[in-house]
Amino acid sequence: MNNGADAADSYFTAFPQSMPVFTGMAVLGVILAALMFRFSTRRPPELREIK
Description:
Layout: H1 5-40
């Protein structure tokens, strides 16, 4: 009778292999958020202060 130990074992052996995928997705999310913030706060040249 299977009590779920095989499923848990396969999850923990597959977890280290999937770690680079989660890390890459997190890095891409941070980069995308930074780009969205950067371009949403840009002002056109005619509104910039002349120094």
